[in-house]
Amino acid sequence: MSIPDVSDKSLAELISLRGQRAVVTGAGRGLGKAIALRLAEAGADVLIGDIEADLAITAAEQVAEAYGVRAIGVAMDVTDGSLVAAAADRAVAELGGLDIWVNNAGVFPSIPLLEMSDTDWEKVFAVNARGVFLGAREAARRMSAAGSGGAIVNIVSTAGFRASAPGLAAYVGSKHAVRGLTRELALELAPMGIRVLGVAPSFVPTEGNMMAHAAAGMPAGDDDTPPTPLMLSGPIGRVGVPDDIARVALFCASDLSAFMTGSTLLADGGSTV
Ligand SMILES: NC(=O)c1ccc[n+]([C@@H]2O[C@H](COP(=O)([O-])OP(=O)(O)OC[C@H]3O[C@@H](n4cnc5c(N)ncnc54)[C@H](O)[C@@H]3O)[C@@H](O)[C@H]2O)c1
Question: In sequence order, what are the residues at sequence separation of 6 or more whose Cβ sits closer than 8 angstroms to the Cβ of residue 102?
Fold first, then answer.
């Protein structure tokens, strides 16, 4: 199926996700939760998957409460194909289908190269790269079977475009992989009416991000600690907030971006210019 021309739709219709069903991985907190909230505000029913079941369930309750959509929280480890498939099946069974899949779950441990074990490397790739492959495959299988197309949004990073900081070799490698996967999947899935886009955030303080920074001995950049140049290197001159990323993800998931596939959009305050 081809991706239709939507130029006769109003702006409100283009941004609306009413009647659509979305899965967001790693959405118990952080960027994923912000994305789930914006998708729900646009009218989508949402399945929130997270390896932390409690976080997923609480976030789903908050999303449902905020926007009156159906939201379910599901324990899901994106590295396990059977759990990813089970979550996709739940979306189809309980929400009635699957139109949007956001591959957001990611990990970012900082480990100096000389100390990085094979297992360290593989753990990062298992979540950040294999998790995206598994999510995209399970989503595309169901979207293709339903024959109504869909959108897959991969949360990449500016680390998918350039080096980041010492200790992030596995992270930077995995995010470059996701950016490449975004291009290739766009090519392969377009004939099924499925668009694939990436969103590449720069530094955004989130719970996981701050823990990773603290573990690496980097300053937090909060009210008590001056931000590092790494955090504020963009022309916009402030650190991002989760909603800066969520709005771009909504754009990618909606018909506003109907003529786009394969791109990874920088949401980085201009820091990668
Ligand atoms: N925050 C940033 O500065 C930033 C910048 C660029 C890219 N990103 C990317 O954005 C995404 C979200 O980052 P965040 O800062 O919100 O992180 P976070 O740690 O705050 O949240 C990540 C969520 O993913 C979940 N998760 C971890 N492993 C999982 C797994 N195997 N299966 C399912 N869920 C899992 C965690 O439980 C957590 O709820 C990641 O892909 C990250 O690489 C973040």
Answer: 22, 23, 24, 25, 27, 32, 35, 39, 152, 153, 154, 155, 249, 253
Atom of ligand 1 nearest to the CA of 108: 43
Looking at the domain assignment, is residue 240 inside a domain? Answer: yes
- Radius of gyration, alpha carbons of the chain: 18
Q: Which residues line ligand 1 (CB under 6 A)?
A: 25-26, 28-32, 50-52, 55, 76-79, 104-108, 127, 155, 157, 201, 203-204, 206-209
**What's this model's pTM, rounded to 2 decimal places?**
0.96
pLDDT in tens, 97-129: 999 999 999 999 999 999 999 999 999 999 999
Alpha-helical regions (H) of 91-168: 118-125, 131-146
The number of folded domains in the chain is 1
* Other CB atoms within 10 Å distance of the CB of residue 260: 16
Print the domain residue range for 101: 11-267
Residue type, 145: A
| Structure token pair of residue 243 | 């909603």
